[in-house]
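hey team, just a heads up i'm posting the complex here instead of the shared drive bc the drive is being weird again. everything in one block, sequence lines first with there labels, then the predicted structure for the whole assembly after. its two chains so it's a bit long, scroll down
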Amino acid sequence: MRIASWNVNSLKVRLPQVLDWLARHQPDALCLQELKLEDANFPKAEIEAAGYFAAYYGQKTYNGVAILSRKPAKDVACGIAGFEDPQRRVISADVDGVRLVCAYVPNGQSLDSDKYRYKLGWLKAFSAWLERELAQHTRLAVLGDYNIAPEDRDVHDPKAWEGKVLVSPLERDAFGRLKALGLTDSFRMFEQPEKSYTWWDYRTNGFKRNLGLRIDHILLSTSLAATCTGCTIDLEPRRHERPSDHAPVVAELAT
DNA sequence: ATGGCTTGAGTGTCAAGA
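-- predicted structure starts here --
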C-alpha cells in the first residue's frame, strides 16, 4: 500500500498537477492540505474521472483537507472530536483497513503571535485526540503538514531559524509528544540524503538553493511502522511551473 | 532590507503562508 501527503497550496491552481501525480504514482491514498476552496467547489468529477474517491473538508480561502483513495473511504470524520475549531484542518477515514488522519497543523506566524498560542493549543488537543484514536485503531497513520521541523537536521540553516516559528522548543516538544504516543516518523526509519526538505520559500528562490525545511511528515502507529518499507520525498513536482511550495511525501507499506 | 513570492478576495491592496 502506498500512502502520500501533499500540501498543494490551492487545489484549484494545482489540480492539473495533482491529477498528473496520481496518474504517475498510483497511490492507494493521497492526503491533501490547503485546498483553499469550499466543498461546493471541490473538483469531485475530475478526481473521480482519475479513478479516485474523495472525502473532503474545505472552507473558503484558507485551510481545507482531503483524502483521495483508490478504494472508498469508510467512517469519514471531520475535525478533532471535542475541539471546537472554525478552521478546517483535519479529516480522517478508513482506507483498506488503515485509519488515515490527514492534518494541516497551524503555522503559528511568530512566537509572540496569538496564532502561535492557537497552534500550541491546537497541538495539545490533537495529541489528546490521537491518543484516543490510537486506542481504537491499531493500524493508524497521521499524514500532513505539521508545520514543525522536528530537529536541526530538518532545517537548512538552524542558526538563522533560531527564535522563529516551526522550530521552537515548544513546537518540537509537541512533536515529541506525538511520538511518545507510539507514532514513528517514517522518514527517519530509513537512511536518507542529507538536507532532505519538504518546503522551500517561494521568495528566496529557496528550492534552487535547497534552502528548505522538513515540515511535512507521515507518522505511523507501531503495528503500521512494522510494515513500512520506505519513505521518500518526491522533489519532481516542486520543479514544475507554478509549483506548490511543498513537495509530496510518500510511504510504502507492505500490506 | 521585518524584504524577496504565491494565493484568494475582489479591482485597492490586503491577509496569510512558513
